[in-house]
Amino acid sequence: MNRRDLLKGLAALPFLGSIANAAHTSTAAKIVRPKRLRAGQTVALISPSSGLSMADINKAIDNMNSLGLKSKLGKYADKTNGFLAGTDAQRVEDIHWAFTDPSIDAVWCLRGGYGLSRILPQIDFAKIKGNPKPFIGYSDITALHVAIHQRTGLVTFHGPVATSTFSDYARDHVVKTLFSGTAPDRIEISPNNAANTNLLYKAQVITPGKARGRLIGGNLSLLTAVAGTPYALKDVRGKILFIEDVGEKPYRIDRMFVQLKQSVDLRSCAAIALGIFADCDAPEGSPTVIDVIKDQFSDLGIPVICGLSFGHIRDQFTLPIGVEAELETANATMTLLESGVS
């Protein structure tokens, strides 16, 4: 009998039931929600992974202005060190500054790319825990999302990077999730994504059902890159695991799914929500990403759907990691049941 079954059995006993229920809710009690964003507040723009041009940085500042936010650029945000933005020490310094500077209200990553996994051992998570703020980004930023949430309980936000092109759909979800804290918030697939003729953009139900659980996940390449390290994705029991990736051949996606399945118990998830695997088309006659997903996930015994509007796409919604959500495959919706901000 595993721990989950044991707790269910204990919950059936009048006295011990309260102990079992306490064990289930202890994780929820540790969730830390940062304060919501408000117009006029200041956002730190940092480059914790790859470098970028000043033109891209100026685009990010314009994006923040359009949201009514002021920007402070990290000391090393515009640096370039090979395929990285600054040295490891410089990028860590900018992360620590962004969280500990009292004039900063939120931390927004300028871009993803590569480099975050290099600096995880150097990050002082106590500084982040002691200064909870909204932290936003996706792609390579997944490595820090998972590490921060598992080590501090802070709700972080898998959403557009500061240099993204903010479509009306993406902007609407940023505002509802980070500013308004709308809950419940029923998120439907973007009409533009639904109209895309590429099958990777079509919602496809692998295993039907409805499930509730706290959100965890991110970019597949990063979830597997940190597997076996102290910063790996750990307990996924009862959670909705969301996954996306970009520009990978289907056989590589299959390989990463195999590694993920051997690293964590996916059968213990409440459900799996897959986004849009942009630019992951298969050569003619080869298995597609959808074929891979069906092969890897159809026997898990939990709801699984792919093609939801998140990932390396223009119309993406923002997912607050750590909040309770509901996935319903019948109408391809994700509902945020509670706010990610206080």
CATH class of the largest domain: Alpha Beta
At CATH level 2, the architecture of the largest domain is 3-Layer(bba) Sandwich
Number of helices: 12
Cα shape: globular
Which key terms come to mind for this protein?
single chain, 342 residues, Rossmann fold, Glucose Oxidase, domain 1, eight-stranded mixed sheet, 14 strands
Secondary structure layout:
Elements: H1 3-11, H2 16-29, E1 42-46, H3 54-66, E2 70-73, H4 88-100, E3 106-109, H5 116-119, H6 125-130, E4 135-137, H7 142-152, E5 156-158, H8 168-180, E6 185-187, H9 191-195, E7 204-207, E8 210-219, H10 220-225, E9 240-244, H11 250-263, E10 271-276, H12 289-297, E11 304-311, E12 319-321, E13 324-328, E14 333-336
Parallel strand pairs: 1-2, 1-3, 3-4, 4-5, 8-9, 9-10, 10-11
Antiparallel strand pairs: 5-12, 6-14, 7-11, 8-13, 13-14
Helix pairs in contact: 1-2, 11-12
Write structural notes for this entry.
The chain is an alpha/beta fold and 342 residues long. The chain folds into two domains: 42-166, Rossmann fold (3-Layer(aba) Sandwich); 185-336, Glucose Oxidase, domain 1, CATH 3.50.30.60. It is built from twelve helices and 14 strands. An eight-stranded mixed sheet has the order 6-14-13-8-9-10-11-7. Strands 2-1-3-4-5-12 form a six-stranded mixed sheet, sandwiched between helices. Helix 11 runs parallel beside helix 12 (289-297).
